[in-house]
Amino acid sequence: MSYQFSSQSVARLDKLLEMFPDKRSVILPGLYLLQKEQGYVDREGMEALADKIGSPISLAQIYGVATFYTLYNKKPVGKYHIQICGTSSCYMRGNDKLEKHICSRLGIETGETTSDKKFTLEEVECLGACGYAPMVQINDAYYENLTFEKMDEILKDLT
Amino acid sequence: MAEMKILTKFIDDPRSNELEFYESVHGYDGMKKALSIAPEEIIEIVKKSGLRGRGGAGFPTGLKWSFIPKDIPKPKYLICNADEGEPGTFKDRKLIENLSHQIIEGMVIGAKAIGANKGFFYIRGEFNKGIDSMQKAIDEAYAKGYLGKNILGSGFDFDLVLYAGAGAYICGEETALINSLEGRRGHPRLKPPFPAVSGLYRCPTVVNNVETFSTVPHILDKGADWYSKIGTEKSPGTRLFSVSGHVKRPGVYEIELGTPLLELVNDLCGGMLDDVPLKAVIPGGSSVPILTAEECKTANMDFESMAAHKTMLGSGAVIVIGEGTDLVETTYRFARFYAHESCGQCTPCREGTHWVRDLLHKIREGEGTSADLDLILSLARNMEGGTTICPLSDACVGAVRPTILKFKHEFEARLKDKAVKEEVEQPAASGA
Fold it and tell me: Under an 8 A CB cutoff, do A126 and B329 touch?
């Protein structure tokens, strides 16, 4: 069965379609809505988005956009998606050690999800928080100036 | 030394993002003035102030606005580039989260100047806090009549839409940003045509940085002469610098252009972390050439001094590197960033960034030879200077080559069994 957007998302999509001179612009915010609803974007959801936006936007165009941008999860992630910034400013303040610490706490390697599907850890490129390194993004929030102790507290609060 | 706070004067006030507070500190006064004068006059004031864009390229803002054709029937668009993401750069985020109304005010002024009735605030998708504070401010501005139809009875209409990017650094490049806003992959476009002629939806478009828009209200409010007297002759005004790395107090600082680099590092940032000696500074984001500790002694934070030192102010990101830092590792991580973010359109960038990253990885692992170092430098020559649509591959070269040339001994020290390997490989190569 094809994907069904919630009524709130349908209302939002209708509003978005009025906001832009070209309805193709709705692809990115539309994919966000899809990800917000189910945590990731998949073929069925993209098909539903293509149907909602309508001709001439095709599934292939939406798929091409979704695969270009890293913020769209193309597969399910854990309840808490931990993204650690791996770029040089963060490295200079110890992100590599923090990453190893998180791996050992969660019992997973970077890129993996815990068996209870609670945490996914990924290393990502610059998150634009270089002065507050090391840092992680967990779902929508930034956690900055981290130490092992602070990180342990955060993980404890989430379990 | 102290900061010279113009844009950020109230940034630490807990009420800084409240409309009422912003109005109480002359907020929207610049916009009111702009609404009462002709568009040409606004452009003239901004030109006279000498303001140069704060996104990275440093192009004169007033001149950019003047490129918009006046007599064509197409709509015109104004875009704020809030897709901040170059390693080392985190200044715009602070303005977005704490002074949203100042940016909106600057955008209304810019819109009036170029005759745009619709604008977009393109913000990087990770900045969730910024997305919330901007949307709240946009809603408040509409309610107060600062956005929308017939702003404050002036007869000028301007609608502003917030648009979140989706994690692609390349979308900070203005034509890639435009493609992204049109719902496409963030592929930069060939120029010409420039966005001023054919930009968003093939209509005349101006794209400016967050900090640039945040500066404009002050110029309108206090005048071009007041602004042009601050800073240096060719780099007027103040600028926000985001300092990261090995300093005691990293953060965002607003200083007068022309301030010595070491005053920023030693006075405002409290000096080196753990009092380690300074090794190097990257003065304008990861894409600009690195300065050695010796070069830092004479470098000032302005466009001219940076050019004299064969580097740039770029995005205003100062990355301070202390002795003991592994420059092979940091350079590898920068190259990895550019390889990850290459959009893939142009071969020198798509292949070059990945190749440079792989070679640096090899050297980092102690498996490289001196031929690999030479190959990086050879590749760099083919990745720069207009061989690609946008400057992302140039940026990768800027992050890698100067560091290899200035700190060559560090890279050479990592080459595995250097002499032995070359001896073994030489006869094989000549016999082939």
Answer: no
